[in-house]
Amino acid sequence: MPRFAKVFATILFAVVVAILAGNAFADGSEVTTGQFLVAVAKAHKLDVSDPANAADALRAAGYAIPKVAFDKPLTEGAVVSIAAALRLNLTTQTPEAAFTQTQMNVFLQSFGKEMATQGDPGGISNSNGVDPETKGMKKGHDKSKSEPL
User: Fold this and answer.
1) What does the pLDDT read at residue 88?
2) Residue 44: is its pLDDT beyond 70?
3) So where are the chain's domains?
4) CA neighbours within 13 Å on the CB side: how many for 119?
5) End-to-end CA distance of the chain, in Å?
6) How far apart are the C-alpha atoms of 80 and 2, rounded to whole Å?
7) How far apart are CA 92 and CA 96, in angstroms?
8) Is it the case that residue 58 has pLDDT exceeding 90?
9) Residue 65: is its pLDDT beyond 70?
10) d(CA 4, CA 20)
11) Is 72 strand, coil or helix?
């Protein structure tokens, strides 16, 4: 029996260490949909303090932010639908999966600059000096369309 107790204690110790190590390395701090909206609004350089203001400010800026429950845990599906309203083309294989704090940080780092420079949400950003009508191709646009080359 002492041998069994020793093996049991070793297994129990290993399980406790694994759980503690998992918690130490987990990014699993839960994020709410409201917290995500506030972070997105701030990435758009909007001065907001709470989720309702963030949603209203994004809607006023021309984005069709869907109606969401601000206190619900953020899911990948919610991120995809909010991103679609921001004109970002994202997909997910697991829409009901939780979206963690680390994932939110990576999202904001990946798309933060793009969101901050979007300017007019209905138009095309012209921050690089390229005319969206001609796509920067100016040569030959002054020729008559009715006269032959």
Assistant:
1) 87
2) yes
3) 33-116
4) 7
5) 99
6) 56
7) 9
8) yes
9) yes
10) 24
11) coil
